[in-house]
Design goal:
single chain; about 270 residues; mainly alpha; Rossmann fold; 3 domains; two-stranded parallel sheet; 10 helices; 4 strands
Length: about 270
């Protein structure tokens, strides 16, 4: 295997205005690559305000980690400017992702000092937080109440539970129909318990984008019927093998019991 750190494989173009997407597995250096790119932007242009950069990731933890790493990197580089050391990041890496040429050192030093003073305005956030900020700016265009709130955690679970209970009550008691009764009979027959049905239905809510998409085709059973039949036959074969193995294990025990009985003179 190569001794070159994996983060060296990340390389970006040079245009000033651009969008960058990094997709990679855990531990491959995504955060390091993002920090290096932000350093390149911030130290390459002293007039660039950090709030003009938007960093979007999946989790609050990752968003906070990226912001902290950028602040730490700027602090480390500021100390190196003062000490006269080479300006490269990550510090001590044999293959740094960001470096400053000697001719640009003074400009980068001024930019580093300026950016450290306003780095708190950098926007590192989750996808849903970014979407929420857009909706806050344009609620009328989005058809939303300008004072809308985001429900999460226990509050969301409670609301889902109330909506689910009201829906069941309407389907089975308030406005029952033959079609709804048949659908619930099928669900109970195949799933067994109401709380399991609830989990299945609430998981569908999380993918309502697919349910509401008229172009989405979930496919038909005949597409996987052959594979399902093969799987069923394999399960039956495994079950039969298990029964035969169990019978062969019990047979010697039974024979020993019969032999012991006969030696005592008891009728067999």
């Amino acid at each position: 295997m190569s001794d070159v750190p994996i983060q060296s494989s990340f390389a970006f173009g040079r245009p000033q205005r651009r969008n960058i997407v990094i997709e990679a597995g855990a531990g491959t250096g995504k955060t390091t690559a993002i920090v290096a790119e932000v350093l390149r932007l911030l130290l390459g242009d002293e007039s660039l305000l950090p709030e003009r950069i938007i960093l979007v990731t999946f989790t609050e933890k990752a968003a906070g980690e990226i912001a902290d790493r950028i602040h730490e990197a700027l602090t480390e580089l500021e100390l190196r400017f003062d000490s006269g050391d080479e300006i490269a990041w990550p510090i001590g890496s044999a293959t740094p992702l960001f470096s400053v040429a000697s001719a640009d050192r003074e400009a980068a030093r001024r930019a580093c000092a300026a950016q450290l003073g306003r780095i708190d305005s950098l926007r590192s956030q989750t996808i849903h937080a970014f979407c929420q900020s857009l909706l806050r700016q344009f609620p009328i265009e989005a058809g939303l109440d300008p004072q809308f709130t985001i429900i999460e955690g226990f509050e969301r679970s409670l609301l889902y539970g109330e909506a689910y209970d009201a829906w069941i009550d309407d389907e089975t008691r308030v406005h029952p129909t033959a079609e709804a009764r048949y659908e619930w009979e099928v669900l109970l027959e195949h799933v067994g318990y109401l709380f399991l049905i609830r989990n299945i239905i609430l998981s569908l809510i999380d993918r309502r984008d697919l349910l509401l998409d008229d172009t989405y085709d979930p496919g038909a059973l005949d597409l996987v019927e052959h594979e399902l039949l093969i799987a069923i036959e394999r399960l039956r074969s495994c079950e039969a093998d298990s029964v035969r193995e169990s019978a062969s294990t019990c047979a010697p025990t039974r024979r020993r019991s019969v032999a012991a009985t006969s030696t005592r003179g008891s009728p067999i």
